[in-house]
Amino acid sequence: xxKPKDMNNLEEGVEFLPAMNSKKMEKRGPKRRVVITVVVIVxxxxxxxxxxxxxxxxxxxxxxxxxxxGHLRVLNWDFLDAYENSSSPDFIMLxxxxxxxxxxxxxxxxxxxxxHKETVITAFSEGSVIAYYWSEFHVxxxxxxxxxxxxxxxxSLVQRWNPRLRNPMLKVxxxxxxxxxxxIAYSARDKSCVFALHxxxxxxxxxxxxxxxxxxxxxxxxxxxxxxxxANSIISLTFKTLELEQCTDDSDYIKVYNSLSPVEPHAxxxxxxxxxxxxxxxxxxxxxxxxxxxxTNKEGRFPGFKAEFFQLPxxxxxxxxxxxESGTFTTPYYPAHYPPATDCVWNIEVPSKKNVKVRFxxxxxxxxxxxxxxxxxxxxxINSTKYCGERPQFVVASTNNKIEVRFxxxxxxxxxxxxxxxxxxxxSDPCPGKFTCNTGRCIDRSMRCDxxxxxxxxxxxxxxTCTDQxxxxxxxWCKPKFWVCDNVNDCGDNSDELQCSCAxxxxxxxxxxxxxxxxxxxxxxxxxxxxxxxxxxNGEAVPCKEYTYKCRSGRCISKQNPECDGERDCxxxxxEENCNCGIRSYVRKSRIVGGQNSDVGEWPWQVSLHxxxxxxxxxxxxxxETWLVSAAHCFLQLQGIRYSDxxxxxAYLGLTNQGNRNGANVQTRKIKRxxxxxxxxxxxxxxxxxxVELQSPVTFSSVVQxxxxxxxxxxxxxxxxxxxxGWGATVEGGSGASILQKAEIRLINQSVCxxxxxxxxxxRMMCVGILTGGVDACQGDSGGPLVxxxxxxxxxxxxxxxWGDGCAQRNKPGVYSRLTSLRDWIKEQTGL
Length: 832
Ligand SMILES: *[C@@H]1O[C@H](CO)[C@@H](O)[C@H](O)[C@H]1NC(C)=O
Ligand SMILES: *[C@@H]1O[C@H](CO)[C@@H](O)[C@H](O)[C@H]1NC(C)=O
Ligand SMILES: *[C@@H]1O[C@H](CO)[C@@H](O)[C@H](O)[C@H]1NC(C)=O
Ligand SMILES: *[C@@H]1O[C@H](CO)[C@@H](O)[C@H](O)[C@H]1NC(C)=O
Ligand SMILES: [Ca+2]
Ligand SMILES: [Ca+2]
Known about the structure:
Blueprint lengths: L1 H13 L3 H11 L3 H30 L1 E12 L14 H19 L8 E11 L2 E12 H12 L1 H8 L10 E9 L1 H6 L6 E5 L6 E4 L13 E7 L4 E11 L9 E5 L9 E5 L10 E3 L4 E7 L8 E10 L5 E5 L2 E5 L11 E8 L5 E11 L13 E4 L2 E3 L1 E2 L3 E4 L4 E8 L7 E9 L9 E2 L5 E2 L26 E3 L5 E3 L25 E3 L5 E3 L24 E2 L6 E2 L5 E2 L48 E6 L3 E8 L4 E4 L6 E2 L2 E2 L6 E5 L13 E10 L13 E5 L26 E6 L14 E7 L2 H7 L8 E6 L14 E5 L5 E9 L10 E5 H12 L2
Parallel strand pairs: 5-7, 14-16
Antiparallel strand pairs: 1-3, 1-4, 2-3, 6-13, 7-12, 8-11, 8-13, 9-10, 9-12, 15-23, 16-22, 17-20, 17-21, 17-23, 18-19, 18-22, 24-25, 26-27, 28-29, 30-32, 31-32, 33-34, 33-38, 34-35, 35-40, 36-37, 38-39, 39-40, 41-42, 41-44, 42-43, 43-46, 44-45, 45-46
Helix pairs in contact: 2-3
The protein binds 2-acetamido-2-deoxy-beta-D-glucopyranose (4 copies) and calcium ion (CA) (2 copies).
């Protein structure tokens, strides 16, 4: 029985119960040990008490610093202009009164009063008088929660307190306070970057970051611009230029508030980095005040912003009754960010024998952090359905001649809103001349049974008979044949991929071959393209093969696509050198939706090649300051003109709209040399590639950037998504678009495509099919870029538009020069 007892003792010892332990020890040991035991107990007790005291002082008594930011309304006081100047005697006098009022009600609560350190009045605005303040508290940790609770309930606090004084000097109401980061309140004492501006009637007021545009904005700074307008006005604020540090968690940022207090529940927007020109940077307030703050970290040199604001009368009502056959309506001030705390109701009524539908052409009602499934903050509501988030064009149809559209925005964070139209239609023929989706949307008749789901519910692709250009899926869908065997399940039941998938315990090579899993990474190229030997060892050198990446040192590594992926794979780092390519300057998402128009700066490597008197003839890609990559067939002799003569050509860079060739950001260059591939065959279009040298280097900018050239071993697998861009003109002539077009496309299985194109493909060609775009869209130019977005977000040139109409069309594969198989030649010619 002795053994179990020992174990008991051991276990009890862990519990730190000195009294019980001592009893057991007393029983066992002789008397002499009692003394030692007592000493031990006393020691343990002292330790315990010390520990408790240390804990008490460290964690219970040492106060937590808390700052609350807020505002309140003073009812019995008239506003003076001098209240906008915090150094004026009038300001100081009223601030003193408000401060003592705030002190008064803070001290009327035993949860708040004892911990109040100080209150600072930061600003006043009109209406009657609104006072903005922050209050600092030093509160023991264990009282923190009750303080928070009492502060959140200040409304009742004020009510309790006001009547207690028979003649309160200031009658206050609408007191609000929100906890804020103490550092923001502390640095607010530093007045070096604090500005107060009042809108002037009928005038635009401009302000900038300190030093703009000649010097970067300060580091470690906290700047405030308090913007005010007359009572019953609201403020419209626009950032004309904005260039901050790229957004990360601790990067510099601007926050705009619909209040003079920088509190999160009234934040309108957080801005960082830079924005594509299509992104609207105009913000509306719901009151006559706005606060712009700039918070910067300790490093970086960026220009900052230039902004302007003006006042406009407050909207009386939003929405209204809309009658007639059709019409349009938008959120207030569209495309500016709609004001917060706004409710609009549109009652739409079309002639009584018709039905009505609403088509939302643009829809941006996105709240950061709010799932679009809940729509708890800002939303559009029709009947009982709420819509929010960012949505592509959609239609809501009613079964009668009336429809009610509601719009609600809450106190914080706004977006650009929506632009909608309402249309009346005959219930018997809702889409005259067009096909009607079951959702009510009208689409072009040619989109019916073409293999693409144009109706979101797929109703355009039901009950179709497949053509001989189409593959019949097991589930009945018809899909273009070129989507067969591209590793993408287009049918939905995978039946387009069944005939070419590999058995369960085998590996599918990039070229489609199946090999047993056991032959993967065995050092032998079983696939024939090396894809079974890629990414086998991490970082170690492997014997050099055709398909292994060769570092500058001559060592080879086994990793697929190691170039510029942000990881150092070569010992000498040569895989990460010369990586200033393939990145857009405007990282923020473009807001051009619907259609294939590109935004300014979206494809900064796109070049337009013009011939004097003929305009835009071919596209090209910028790959360095002086070199372009284009197609050899652009420079063939045609109708007696020697297009290979460099002096005929002019290159336009940074161009989006052909009509805007004199734009400030557009760069033009003369051509020094044109080198076409010596094996170019003008009958088969094999080796359709050329490199073009500019007479003088271009200057990289937000709209002019080079694209990355892939290594010859780079893998662009079948089924990969790529982008093609161009103005849609071809050498053969024909007028193109004036805005740069884009289309998302996908690599097609080479053998499938070769069959569709009756054996015309060579290993220097690759075949793509379009994924997005209308039926008769023509996006892409001979010589123009086909780019892939790699996992690192960097873009690589995968191909050059060659033949197959040059245009990317829905039901025709396009043929591109395969860059990887021509890569060594490019290097020989350009050194790149
Ligand atoms: C603010 O008030 C102070 C003190 O009266 C005065 O010196 C200063 O010029 C005023 N500032 C402005 C911008 O009016
Ligand atoms: C943003 O919206 C405002 C207000 O409607 C408009 O004046 C401005 O041109 C818009 N800016 C852009 C870039 O669309
Ligand atoms: C809204 O509800 C009414 C009555 O229930 C119905 O007739 C109408 O079609 C509905 N409208 C929409 C757009 O769903
Ligand atoms: C291409 O299609 C053929 C069948 O036509 C198939 O055998 C091959 O595996 C496919 N290639 C790829 C890469 O999937
Ligand atoms: Ca379709
Ligand atoms: Ca497929």
